[in-house]
Amino acid sequence: MSDTPPIRIVRTDTMHEGAKLRVVVDHQQLPDGTVVAWESVVHVDAVLALPIDADGGVYLVEQYRPQLGQRTVEVVGGGREHSMTPEEAMHRELLEEAGIVATLRSLGTAQLGASTIRCRAHLFLAHVEHVQPPEPEPFERLMGHRVLHMPLAEAVELAMGGAMVDSTSRLLVLLAAEHVRRSG
Questions:
Q1: pLDDT of residue 1
Q2: Higher pLDDT, residue 184 or 147
Q3: What mean pLDDT do residues 48-64 have?
Q4: Rounded CA gap, 145 and 97, in Å?
Q5: Mean pLDDT over residues 115-142, rounded?
């Protein structure tokens, strides 16, 4: 088996560039020499954590998402500035969104999408050390930001039953539950 990829990107054109994302067209050369265009979104890295306390309770965030026209329940998360490590960005988000100081355990990374959305998500289980009032950003306060505390099993039911609509939140809740199950 050859290490040479069957398709290679020969040129990338940026169609739009914003603070958090770029829309690009990759010109991909096929094995027969044909070049085809492929559109995708390149987003800054995301950081996500499921905070869990000593009693096995987890913290989630509920807020209105105007893009979806509904309230959602999600894990704590946000974007990673290029100057920050994933851990630094996650600590910042935990304090801001949930008022949580925690020790982080990496559960790896995942891609938000494999073909049309390029966004690496750094996933963490956050072992809660201290909880204080959160400091949500002004936009988050406008969206009715609330911190929810519930048993891990209830969060798993939200993920499995579809009440949790954010795919990365669902993934992280299920990975964290399996990690807790395996580690005791």
A1: 57
A2: 147
A3: 97
A4: 8
A5: 91
Q: What is the DSSP string of 48-80?
A: EEEEE-TTSEEEEEEEEETTTTEEEEE-EEEE-
How many residues would you count in the chain?
184
What confidence score (pLDDT) does residue 114 get?
A: 85
Supply the pLDDT for residue 15: 97
User: Please, where are the H alpha helices in the chain?
Assistant: 86-93, 138-142, 152-161, 167-183
What secondary structure letter does DSSP report for 144? T
Which domains can be identified in the chain, with CATH numbers?
8-43 (no CATH), 46-183 (3.90.79.10)
Give burial (CB, 10 Å; 0-12/13-18/19+) of 20. Answer: exposed
Answer for the pair 52, 58: CB distance below 8 angstroms, yes or no: yes
Tell me what pLDDT residue 140 has: 80
Question: What's the rounded Cα separation, in Å, for the pair 60 and 48?
Answer: 11
Contact in structure between 26 and 9 (CB atoms under 8 Å):
yes
